[in-house]
Amino acid sequence: MKIVTIVGARPQFIKAAAVSRLLRSAAREVLVHTGQHYDVNMSEVFFRELGIPAPDYLLGVGSASHGEQTGEMLKQIESVLFREKPGWVLVYGDTNSTLAGALAAAKLHVPVAHVEAGLRSFNRRMPEEVNRVLTDHVSTLLFAPTETAVRNLRREGISAGVWQVGDVMYDAVLQHLDHAREHSQILKRHQLCPKEYVLATLHRAENTDDIQRLHSIMSALAEIGREIPVVLPLHPRTRHLIGGLPALTTAPLRMIEPVSYFDMLRLESSARCIVTDSGGVQKEAFFLRVPCVTTRDESEWLETIDSGWNTLVGADRMKIVKAARQAAPGRSGEWPYGKGDSGKQIVNILAFGRPRPTVEPHRAESPSAERLRTTEERANVNAYSLPHAVFPA
Ligand code: UD1
Ligand code: UDP
After folding, report:
1. Nearest ligand for residue 207 CA
2. Closest among 346, 336, 349 to 146, alpha carbons compared
3. Other C-beta atoms within 10 Å of 171: how many?
């Protein structure tokens, strides 16, 4: 079976790495990199560090407005699909690369498998929310990380093809944390002592493109930075935006270039607290049991908040500073993100049409299984093993 995987942005390289190695032992994977992220430290470093094979297609789309970027990807991905005629298209997360891959495939009747399905912020002003809702609604297989994600899909009338498989980012953390702790030199390089610094990231459009929010969050980080070192690996989007604002560039913060995944794991796992607007970093803080303060008005990762490990503060300066000062461990014992075998489950379902016996029964069971009782629904789920693509002869 041939599967075309679409990636393009930093978190997708990390997610795909956790699946790709297993996938390649069961199917032929054709890897397409849209080029949405292209700086060496936003793209190549992850391929090198995580041993991801070089992309079969590098589309080189680069940065542009949403319509232009997504449209260019759509056009080029369609050409790849015409040429490769895959049985499946596999997409990850909620970026413009995700939507372009899903849409190009769906229009050609190539079934789409979506990893990280069912996430919702319920804020349609977020570009990611639009991308995820549309992708989920054209997907045949929906790999949901949590029970909450399964419920979100059910509320939108999607139950067929939904599998709760845990979170692939947890697989990645388990696979690489020991190596990162042993080999990363990032703490030494920046003269940081474990538990004596705060790690921050900031890149979400709703924060960076709104000058008031950007100012407020940066002022909060600067205030925290007067009490304890704050390390801020700057996303290029944020770097470009604060470049013209000297008051922000001179704040007492350790602004560094984006770091590699291993360096990030090291920075995260030794931080006293993490202040972030990233989806992936909120989860990693939870996986690593580091208190997190999220500078957003809503989060898709409700479990991290409900368990007390993550505090949602929006962009209010005082709230951010207070939450960072008071950051403390949440409750232990709750683990909603699976066992670190979600890559294995995804490959079993995708490549073999159903979980194989090596997967533990309770994890193999789709939570929507009892809803698949009708013949029609069974037919719907089974349809994915019968490709009916509309490629030209
Ligand atoms: C994208 C995703 C976001 C995800 C993030 C991961 C969308 C709509 N957004 O946001 O969901 O959380 O990736 O990091 O898909 N730039 C560079 N070099 C690069 C890449 C980007 O300089 O290698 C700069 C460009 O000025 C570009 C800006 O960053 O315009 C934003 O990049 P873009 O890919 O459009 O969105 P992200 O903010 O990275
Ligand atoms: N990350 C990284 N280096 C950095 C910042 C983040 O390796 O300098 C990793 C981080 O550990 C996580 C992923 O990138 O695995 C999160 O990506 P990002 O915050 O860009 O996007 P989001 O998850 O918000 O979509």
Report:
1. 1
2. 336
3. 27
Ligand 1: residues with CB < 6 A are 9-11, 36-39, 42, 63, 94-96, 127-128, 203, 236-237, 240
Give the span between the Cα atoms of 313 and 117, in whole angstroms. 25
For CA atoms 209, 212, 214, 217, the dihedral sign is: negative
Ligand 2 contact via 264 beta carbon (within 6 Å): yes
In whole angstroms, give the CA distance from residue 65 to residue 62: 10
Q: What are phi and psi of 25, to 5 degrees?
A: -85, -10
pLDDT tens per residue, range 18-61: 999 999 999 999 999 999 999 999 999 999 999 999 999 999 99
Residue 143 pLDDT greater than 90, yes or no: yes
> From the CA of 237, how far away is ligand 1's center (Å)?
6
Q: Identify whether the C-beta of residue 62 lies closer than 8 Å to the C-beta of residue 37.
A: no
Could you tell me if the CB of 343 is within 6 A of ligand 2?
no
- pTM, rounded to two decimals: 0.92
Which pLDDT belongs to residue 390?
56
User: At 120, which amino acid appears?
Assistant: R
Distance 391 CA to ligand 1 centre (A): 32
Which ranges constitute the DSSP H helices of 211-253? 211-225, 236-242, 246-249
